[in-house]
Amino acid sequence: MRNKPLIFTVVLTAILVALALNMRGQDRVADLSSRDLLSPMQEKQLPALERISLTRGEGRVELARHDGTWGVVSHAGFPVQQERLAALLHALRGARVVEEKTSNPEHHARLGLEVAADSEALKVDLHTPELDFGVIYGDRVGNGQLVRFIDNDQVLLLNRPLSISVSPLDWLALKAVDIPMQQVATARWTHADGETLELDKRAEGDYNLRMVGLEADQQSGNERWINSMVLALINLTAQNVALREDLALAEPMLRMQVTTWAGAELAASLHDVEGRYWLVIDNYAAAEAEEDPLQVNADSRWAYQIGIGQVENLNKRQADIVRSP
């Protein structure tokens, strides 16, 4: 009688182990029965891709590679956000077919696989010098998604869904400047009317900037206003981009200069073009002995559109910074 609990425990453990082994075996069978979405030939073409287009309803974004760099076609080839492109290619390469569904084209519309102006189907077209192919993504089913190849009626169930934007703005690499605040040594802001703000730091590694010429009691408590002005430039993420030659850029409303302790120099200017604000990087010289190069897109072709909040931070004057209690 005393052994009954022990016997019960042993039997229960054996049952649980058997169930776990059975479930693991089923998972292995599922893994073995699934296959890659792309054929070996198609997967081999991914590194050679020259053009990718994504279409959903009336939304469309087209990407093209030129001289080894991917750009957004609708924005004159401005660089693509690499993380988003990598996510797309990873989804294509890693997707697995877990089940074949219908091959009757009459069911495509019901399954979200009919491409039309009012459809939510995502069409991914891929072009290489040797092969053109593409995939249409339809309705989600559980944790997976229904797809079919563009030139094939066979519907497939994938093991994972793909959710990705078809807005060109979401594909632009709009992080234009990324300089850590601790590396900034000096800054100079010059307004169109001649008012100039000179900023520096007491020592290398400090975070807070101070305004040259202000008494200590005027500096205290105003650090965040000074810092926010410079941060708006050195951590600049734009809202949009345009070719400078397409804009009527006149004399700037503000000129900005920043230098780092290592010796890098950044010069930029702010322009008002018919009520829209554009920031231009006029010059950038990297430091000679810089271990970790700063991230600055100083390509002279581009102007960066910024929002009113960013303009308010950049376009500060001494009266905006030195605030009495």
Automatic annotation (TrEMBL):
Record-linked InterPro entries: DUF4340
Pfam hit, one: DUF4340
Domain annotation DUF4340: ranges: 70-243
Protein name: DUF4340 domain-containing protein
Species, as recorded: Halopseudomonas bauzanensis
